[in-house]
Amino acid sequence: MAELGAPIEGLAPAEIRAIQSERLAAQWAYLWARSPFYQEKLRAAGLGPDSVRRIEDLTGVPFTVKDEIRKSLEANPPLGNHLAADPGDIVQFQASGGTTGRPSYVGITARDRANWAEITRRTLWAHGFRPADRVLQALGMSRCWVGGVPVIQGLEALGAACIPAGAEPGTTWLLHTISDLSPNGLVATPNFAVYLGNQAKEVLGVDARELSIERIYVGGEPGGGIPEFRRHAEEIWGAKMHEVMGGTDLSPVLWAECEDQSGMHFVSHEFVYWEIIDSAGDPVEITEGATGELVYSHLDREATPVLRFRHSDIIEVLDTECRCGRTSPKIRCFGRTDDLMIIKGVNFFPSALQDIVLGFRPATTGSVRIIKHEPEYAWPGPLHVRVERGEGRSPDDDEELRSKLAQAISDMCRVRARVEVVSFGTYPSPGRKKVRIIEKVYET
After folding, report:
1. What's the pTM?
2. Which of 82, 149, 209, 371 can bridge 37 by disulfide, Cβ–Cβ 3.0-4.6 Å?
3. What whole-number distance in Å separates Cα of residue 419 and Cα of residue 368?
């Protein structure tokens, strides 16, 4: 059994639930006293200050959705009607990436900041990072993204030596920094980690495997948990890649893989409560093989707290036990509700396609695009897919590649696909942030 980042990670589920119920009761009282947003929302649902006393009572509480938060921010900028702390107590502002519009801002108090740092410390510990480590932080530092400064604060809480570079200096500078300072840890998005490793030979004259990196901490986009992608990244660096997941409205990270790399554990039990629901909004029992949408409730948050917040991430529970000693189930995220497509009645997530195409390297580069010909999320099919031919591969082999890919998509996703093979270099190499694999060709 591995040493845990915090004792609560190894407690029995009933013990954790008791702690969470106590925290929830205090948070509920705080919302009624301090949050205009939730005072109005909960009264409209027929709930009062005494309606929730334990975790089990949450099922009677209405969901909070992203659009409500957006409207709250617009109605009362900069932090919305769900700001529950005194504005003068805000010590830090952070923002979402804003990939679907304007960024969504959150504020944190000194207590919130300490909680974020503690959760981040636990994720680093789960990955195997320790105080004596030296870590290059190569996640974007610009635009108040939660992958920037908050990750540095987590490294400080761990006691590791941090090289706070961000992704902005570019590959040449970052690779020379690795060569000069010999960090054994790297923090990056999955695709940027691969891109950085692939540039090592050109920039430094050596393979990335010959550099000092031993552990790669990735998040911010899909990829780190996709088996074929992870295998490819680890071959490039000769290092272990571990995935994390969180959310701007909640905490930069909430989930992390242990040394087994067999799914992400929840490491923030006393700060946030999680549940999963089905497409109808009904609770799903957390058992091995269960799937559903993640829903989160803050248990200890002063500024901009959320309650039963639908996060859109679709997860599968991989296991409910682990030899590391953590009692949290292990999960993987395989899509988002806003990415869901229905092809002839079959639910399909783009991340599943990416996994398949990565498995065909080196015949492909791993780059793939779904060509969307109409705005509806439900299509009659077939799925139109473009795949980039691998470097140095002959176009004479395209027909065989098309056939094998179409069959793999049918076998693994139960979807009929029309596959095009495009020439090497059609799509840009992945950089700091993975581009969406859906291309729209219809007029809006």
Report:
1. 0.82
2. 82
3. 10
Of 92, 96, 136, 132, residue with least CA distance to 113: 92
Give which of 238, 212, 235 is closest to 133, Cα–Cα. 212
d(CA 28, CA 32) in angstroms, rounded, equals 6
Task: Give 38 or 365, the one with higher predicted confidence.
Answer: 38
Instruction: List 90's β-bridge partners, or say none.
Output: 109
Return the C-alpha torsion angle 429, 175, 120, 98, nearest 10: -40
Alpha carbons within 13 angstroms on the beta-carbon side of residue 140 total 20
Cα distance between residue 117 and residue 121, in whole Å = 6
Phi, psi angles (nearest 5°) of residue 369: -135, 140
**For 62-87, how does the pLDDT look when each residue is reduced to its tens digit (9 = 90+)?**
999 988 998 999 899 999 999 999 99
How many residues in the chain?
444
Give the per-residue pLDDT at 98: 47
What stretch of H or E contains 116? helix 110-127
Q: Does residue 340 have a pLDDT over 80?
A: no
Look at residue 219 and give its three-state secondary structure: coil
Beta-bridge mates of residue 109 = 90
Quick one: pLDDT at residue 101? 47
Q: How many CA atoms lie within 13 A of 161 on its CB side?
A: 7
202, two tokens? 């050109």
Q: Which two tokens stand for residue 347?
A: 């639910």
Average pLDDT estimate for 387-408: 93
The whole-angstrom separation of Cα 415 and Cα 57 is: 40
pLDDT of residue 442 exceeding 70, the answer is no
Sign of CA dihedral 282, 288, 292, 293: positive
Q: Compute the distance between CA of residue 312 and CA of residue 290 in angstroms, rounded to an integer.
A: 16
Distance CA 225, CA 248 (A): 20
Q: Who's near 93: CB < 8 A, 6+ residues apart?
A: 78, 105, 106, 107, 144
Report the interhelical angle of 66-75 vs 36-44 (nearest 10°). Answer: 130
CA gap 214, 240 in Å, rounded: 6
Residues 286, 276: contact at Cβ < 8 Å? yes
Distance between CA atoms of 222 and 411, rounded to whole angstroms? 22
Query: What is the C-alpha separation between 35 and 305, in angstroms, rounded?
Result: 9
Report residue 167 as tokens: 């992704």
CA angle, 146 then 152 then 157, to 5°: 115
